[in-house]
Structure prediction request, 438 residues.
Amino acid sequence: MEDLQKQITALQEEAEINKAKIAALESHIVDKGNELVDAQDRIRELESSVSIGSLADQKTTTDQVILSYGKKKYLVTAPRFKYQGKVYNAAELNTNKDLAKAMIDLSVGFIQELK
Amino acid sequence: MAGESVVYTSAEAFQDYVRQFRKELYRQLYYGFKTSYLATPFEGVKGEEIISESVITNALVRRWSKSFNPVQAAEIKPVKLVTSLNKVDISVTPQDYEKSYLGILRRKGQNPTDWPFEEYMMKQFMDKVMQEMEYAIWHAEAAAVPNANDELIATFDGYLKHIATAITNNEVTPVATGAFTANNAVASLRTMWADVDEMYKETGTDIFMSYELYDYYRINYKNEFKANPIETETINESGYVAKGLQYELGAGNSFITPVPGLAGSGRVIITPRNNLIYGMDDPSDLSFNFEQEKRELCFWMDFRMGAQILMKRDGILVVNDQA
Prediction:
């Protein structure tokens, strides 16, 4: 009977130790979860800082042209376009100011002002 | 009204429902949104599939001679259709839907055996998923850095992204029209139409735009000609109906089709509808399930989706300059 009582006490002690271990692990999981949330927030911050970066900071590809018109600069994202039945290369916008004015007045989507 | 109570928390009933009506749910999901009526589906695309587009550039017919001189008949151009794996996880308390379900049930004059609660609940989810699919198939842009919280719109490239890439890659030349308005839509579309390949003016093509631009076109047309443009319906092979306008030019078999998925975009796209394709799971791979968690029902669904444009060339894919 005494042995049985000892066994019960030992099991109870073991159970207490296990409970403490579980509590410690749960706390560890919560900490790791918080770290993960922080890391995800940081990733989102970095992603948004990249996407809202000024167009002027972006590297243009070989086909993209920077158009200077008046005092402003524009990024031309289409290497060529069609206007009034004729195909133009983006580079022609810098030499044909009438064409550049027509495109800027039309607010075409492939010309973006650099700020 | 105790007699009208429904057993709301039985996951088994929902499981049975999705198993029994799996094919209908699949059809609703992939063939239930507007653009799916028009674009060409590719089933069973896991990850990616290379689709060969053949372009016949050389003249096939030559003057007769007795020697056999084959010409390079077709240039094979690979087009990659990529699908991404997506999921829907929903946890709901069905009792929250009791009043709206019973209300609609009374209004419809039906009894619960005709229109079970499970169908009502699934319809709520599926309608929302289809709405997201319709928008994503046009607007989606695959995130450079995939994130577990990415919505459908960030998991694959939609048609607008493929068009933007085709312009940057010099495959397609945008037509400078400026933004479509209620004062210039008819003239702007005529400017674009001039660039459509003669063959497609004969065989017919589609003109896709948002409802906003579609309304501008109608207003502009009415103001210009004091008449309504000709309304029409196009019916695809599966019997779906898409309403639109018969375009005034060409052989009379080209249609202006507004699609809700283009909402917020100023892009107008002239291309035959079978040029737009989308990829998805095989019916047997689509995963639906319900499980019960105390009073809540947990529903999840895994599915693949992707979009591509087969022929990205001037004359076949004519677009304006707006994004």
